[in-house]
Design a protein that fits this description.
This protein is an all-alpha fold. It has one domain. Helix 3 packs antiparallel against helix 12, helix 8 packs across helix 11 and helix 11 packs across helix 12. The two termini are 35 Å apart.
Length: 291
């Protein structure tokens, strides 16, 4: 049976239940905490998040190669002489040799590289990059959970037009976050069924645990959004400057790992190209015109 592409009523109901649960828990929190204290704490968290986001964005932009080095340029020249689709050209020996030199892994073809996404090296790099935002006292399983969540959010932000469909955005994001909470042993269904029997202390303890997880998820979600936007801008600039065919090859050479990661989210190169050439979010004026 084919899956309905539209958001199911069950998913929206699940989202609503989650919102109700959080509202109930927040009410219990406000019984014990002054409103001004909660506001100041939230404001402080937002400011800290903005600092992390700004620092991460600047570091990522600095790592992006403005010009191709000698080996990269040599690879580009070889690929330009090969005819075929993007995936076929990237399955050629020159590019596979380039990947081996860059990462030390041998791939049979480009599809094998895509199937390996995210690679162990990408996950390790993510752990190193996010070392300042990941709590030190976490198990190996918890660390892997956060890295998995980050890459899930990378795929989430690559969904075409996701930033222009608020209902789809919220429902999909909440589905991912509910899965994250379940990974940490928090089932929304169970909570909804037992909330009325909880003591105030139990509710406060639960809220503290949920808040800690969601605060951390907010950071990883924002960083995934930053990465998506920075790479999207970098790639779209290459396609506009060099044309779609050479531009895509330059993207695959300049940022091989993240380009392959993003390519793995799409059915084929044509859909990827369309996504790169389409602004991630419509301008207000464009939206108003449609209305």
């Amino acid at each position: 049976m084919e899956q309905n592409p539209r958001i199911s009523q069950k998913l929206l109901s699940h989202f609503s239940m989650m919102c109700v649960l959080f509202c109930i828990l927040v009410v219990h929190l406000n019984v014990l905490a002054a409103a001004t204290d909660v506001f100041e704490e939230n404001l402080s968290s937002l400011k800290a998040l903005e600092v992390i986001e700004k620092k991460h964005k600047a570091a990522l932009k600095k790592r992006l190669p403005v010009l191709l080095d000698e080996s990269a340029q040599k690879c580009l020249n070889q690929l330009l002489a090969i005819s075929g689709t993007l995936d076929e050209v990237l399955s050629s020996q020159p590019y596979l040799t380039y990947l081996e030199a860059r990462f030390g892994n041998v791939y049979e073809d480009y599809s094998t590289y895509l199937a390996a996404m995210p690679t162990a090296k990408l996950k390790t790099e993510a752990l190193f990059t996010f070392k300042d935002v990941i709590l030190s006292k976490q198990t190996s399983e918890e660390l892997q959970t956060w890295i998995k969540y980050y890459f899930q959010m990378r795929q989430f932000y690559a969904v075409p037009d996701i930033l222009n469909d608020r209902q789809k955005f919220m429902a999909t994001e909440m589905r991912i976050k509910s899965q994250l909470l379940m990974t940490f042993g928090i089932s929304l269904t169970t909570i909804a069924e037992t909330e009325t029997t909880m003591t105030k202390a139990e509710k406060m303890a639960l809220l503290a645990k949920v808040d800690k997880i969601l605060d951390r998820s907010r950071i990883f979600g924002r960083l995934a959004s930053v990465d998506t936007k920075v790479y999207h801008a970098f790639w779209s600039d290459r396609l506009e400057k060099y044309g779609s065919d050479e531009g895509l090859l330059r993207c695959a050479i300049a940022t091989p790992a993240d380009f392959a990661l993003t390519r793995s989210f799409f059915e084929n190169p044509q859909v990827l190209k369309k996504w790169i050439l389409t602004p991630l979010k419509k301008s207000v004026s464009a939206t108003e015109k449609e209305e």
